[in-house]
Amino acid sequence: MANTQLTDKIAVVLDLGTSKIRAMAVVLDNDKVSHIIATEKADSKGVKHGKVDNHIELAGVVKPMLTNLQNRIYNKIKESVGEAIVGNEVVIKSVYIALGGTGIFGKKESEIYRLNNEYVGVPVVTSIKEKIRDRVQNDKDEILEFINQGYNIDDEIRMEPVGCRATNIEGRYCMVMANKDVKQDVINMLSLCQCTLAGYVLTPFALANVMLSDADKEVGAVLVDLGASSTSIAIYKDNVRRHVMVLPVGGKIITKDIKKVCGLTSEQAEKIKKKLGYAYPGGVEENILCSMAGTNVKVESLELSKIIEARLDQLMSYLLGEMCKVNAISECKKIILTGRASRLNKISEKFTNEFGVDTEVGTIVDKCYEKYASYFMEKSELEKAIKDMNEFAACLGVLESTSLESCTFIGKKQQLAQPKQKEKKGGFLSTLFNDFRIRTEGLIEGQVEKTELK
Fold it and tell me: Which residues are paired to 336 by β-bridges?
């Protein structure tokens, strides 16, 4: 790994997941990632359905993670430059966020502008966007992003309209919107950590940028993130982001069904889902009877798969509705699954059977693997390193999706000024008396301390 210097710019990324919070610090070179310097991971608190539910509780998790990162960055620099770092400190001033959670949704909008066979200029595009903004904005939601879907210029689709001659131009956009609280709650949480929001990338798009290849995005692909308590979907076609949606259901709802039907605790239900769970009865390779230690409960893998399939069918019906909004079933060639619930046995076969689209469980694409693998390979063997990279996929996706600036500050520690002693007033006797009093008080205090220790 490259050495880290005092002059390096360092950016920090946070992924606020429902089950885990992940943080990553990277060294920058001309606002591009040079190498990963440190990562942190902790159990999540204060996050529900992928968004901040209790910003005070979440800050209690994030603040010590950022402190740990500061210390590790400091130590890495010290390893490289020796004692030159002494007397300095590392402070994380701001962070980039993988912004997710329910309340984020895509909405198709369009606006027509009429010209008289004139050139399309920037003011025309600005006017189209402003009219759409005025139409869709409201007191409840905020616009996170305008995603260009192409301009229909006299019945010809162009991605870049400026400079074209036109009679009629129709601007088409996917408006990414969210409840105003989604971003504000993150800002409030960071404020408690003495930190600000440097920028954000929507989690579905961040994941897609490290799990979909350029070819996938061109021919058409759907990235489905099956999280613990939310499921997000990002759809691409012709290298354009077509749609995004976050649903308030995830793998935990399957665990709850198993818990209720089988009479188990949440922990037991999660364990048996991982060990025996199949996405559908037809995928069960062998019907195994499993006994739960400390209980009289016995569960067959075939019966367990029926419980799982019932809830998966409900989730997939929601996904189908979102995919149909942009004709993804007919136009997309691949579905990529990621997230906690994608580890379920035979889940890719279940999706293939239901949607008629080739489905596979995703992993980091080659170009990102080559770029970031060295950090993870230093700490683990190949199989574990790949697993860890996939776990930090949202953080890596943010790094690949936006222009970064420095988020840390390396500066001199402030030395507390020693208070000046007041000049003693009075003559020789006064000075002698004060000196005697000070000595006597010291002896008395010492005696009190010894008495208390006994």
Answer: 223, 360
